[in-house]
Amino acid sequence: MYKIRNLSLSFDGHEAVRSASFDIPRGARLGLVGESGCGKSITALALLGMAPASARVSGSIEIDGQEMAAAPERLWRSYRARKVAMVFQEPLSALNPLKRVGDIIAEPMRLHLRLDRRAARARARDLLVEVGIPDPEARLDQYPHQLSGGQRQRVLIAAALSCDPQLLVADEPTTALDAHVAGRILDLLKRLSETRDMALVFISHDLEAVARVTEEMLVMYGGDIVERGPTAQLLADPRHPYTKGLIEARPRLDALTLRADGAPRPRLASIPGSVPALADLPKGCRFAGRCPIERPACAGLRPAVSVLGPGQRQVRCLAPLLPAKVPA
Amino acid sequence: MPFLLRRLAGLVATLTGISLVVFAVMNVLPGDPALTILGLDSTEDARAALSAQLGLDQPVWARYLDWLGGILQSDFGTSYAYRVPVTELILERLPLTLTLGLLASILTIALATALGVFAAARHGKAGDWVTMILSQLGIAIPAFWLSILLVLLFAVTLRVLPSGGFPGWAEPLEALKSLVLPVTALVLVQASVLARVTRASVLEVAKLDYARTARALGLSPRRVMWGHVLPNALVPMVTVAGMQLAGLITGTIVIENVFFLPGLGRLMFQAINNRDLYTVQALVLLFASIVVIVNFLVDMIYLLIDPRLREGRS
Ligand SMILES: Nc1ncnc2c1ncn2[C@@H]1O[C@H](COP(=O)(O)OP(=O)(O)OP(=O)(O)O)[C@@H](O)[C@H]1O
Ligand SMILES: [Mg+2]
A96 near B232, Cβ under 8 Å? Predict the structure, then answer.
């Protein structure tokens, strides 16, 4: 359905996404993880033709056989909501505070599907039911500020689903929510993808969330997709040193419990240093400089993608880690 | 709606307060109306008699109550200078000023919105720059100087519009023609300010997430602008537009005098020169009331625009 080839996005000549290639088959659930600034959001926006105006886009984005990378805004507009939709991180600020919930959800349907007011409202009501909002009839006439955070995110999802897109892009949809509510939104996204046979690109910092929702994942660092594969396999057996660092650095319950003196325990492991600014990223492997197993060649030479084993696992590293467990 | 009642009560209280201040200020100003009316060569006795006739020998509080009681029956007293009821003077001149003010307000809002949205939509490009430079000029140029330039160009050089005066409403087309330059002078200044506010406010809102959400749902830039961005940019615009109305009133006084338009502004100017106490009092009260009432309307418009502000107020 989506075929992305050598997609690059650069600002002032610095590549924030460097020749990314991946497919999004129908109904697939794809996770996109990586530290802040690694290019997740701009990649996601590029899937809607909404990369920042200052970004230079090159490469190919094919949607159902149609080449879209250089497509005019007009064509993109007709694809948004109908082929691809997006939900954003901050559910309160992502909803127009002056519009009623019903109108927010109905607007794309009235525009793209040419539904009349009554039909659009009826469908908006059904969508609220589908995303699990109780008492939908009353909600239609409420304003975003009258809803809880979780309900706002559900409304945003309902608006995104309104024209039955084949792909939903969710950019850190639960970061602003508390853990319990976030978990239910994750389950909702997964269920919607299954029942609607709708592809999902799920962006998150949170590996647990990615594991809960997706089947396949891409790990990004400094604009490169450094590793990809089935989510469970990749988390259990990372082959790129960055992925491994990410997994080891994630907050765990034992890291969150307090020490006897009341202070939080220090994290056991974290990736040394921080992500350099776009202009300071190494020319070769982006991870050079922070990598624990770096070799002299790494900073100057961009590693090729190696395909691992029989599966769909790929890693962009000169010296990928060995399998965690020796295959029987 | 008790909230509305409370606001209305507040409005009445404010207006009463204004009437008190206006009356107090006008009655401590130097200058004896009897002297002004009768002239310097009048006798002491004649002036005393006139003062008594005008009620000026009464204590101040009695005169205030008398004046206030009159106002409630739309009697603003009698003009010393013209010897006719002030109400009559005002009603005679009101249509001209009202037309001038309303035309200027409507055109200011329309022009400022169009220019502000235009500039914001072309943020950083030539159209934006040109609009901003022109509006900067519009703000920097005093209205009366702009009026003179307009007169020189359109009345003296091109001879397409009258340089001043007002032919009366009997000939509507001529009447409107004589308002073109005054309205233009008023609008260019006010719209320059409001256009900049509009641009800034629209740019601010356009950065917000819901504008991006609307775009991600396939709405055209025009729909995003007029349906989502502009409504959210309205609150600061309405605030400034409300404040500008006060500027418009002082502007009207200046402009009416520059263009010799027999409206309330010109009446005000003449009444002050003539120490025409009741007329000045009535006009100051009227202008102040307009400002207060507009502020009240602005508050009501906020509630209309933003459901979050309506919360807990009804
Ligand atoms: N409009 C822009 N102009 C210039 N640089 C930009 C712009 N948008 C993003 N970038 C740069 O592109 C890189 C990737 O940004 P992006 O927002 O995609 O990161 P991200 O992975 O989504 O991070 P986060 O987890 O914080 O959301 C960053 O280095 C950022 O500085
Ligand atoms: Mg992001």
Answer: yes
ipTM of the prediction: 0.88
| A53 in contact with ligand 1, CB cutoff 6 A | no
Contact A48, A4 (CB under 8 A): no
Q: Are residues B17 and B108 in the same domain?
A: no
In a domain, B267, yes or no: yes
Closest CA of chain B from A145, distance in Å: 7
CATH of the domain at A76: 3.40.50.300
Nearest to B137 by CA among B103, B188, B180, B181: B188
Confidence category of residue A258, pLDDT binned at 50, 70, 90: low
In a shared domain, residues B251 and B165: yes
Tell whether B246 and B215 lie within a shared domain: yes
Q: Is position A147 within any domain?
A: no
What does the DSSP 8-state code read for residue B238?
H
Greater pLDDT, B22 or A44? A44
> Which ligand 1 atom minimizes the distance to the CA of A40?
21
Which numbered atom of ligand 1 lies nearest the CA of A9?
12
Query: Domain count of chain A?
Result: 1
Q: How many whole angstroms separate alpha carbon A59 and alpha carbon A55? A: 13
Q: Which of B243, B232, B236 is CA-nearest to residue B307?
A: B232
Q: How far apart are CA A49 and CA A7, in angstroms?
A: 12
Contact (CB<8Å) A97/B232:
yes
Neighbours of B53 (CB within 10 A): 10
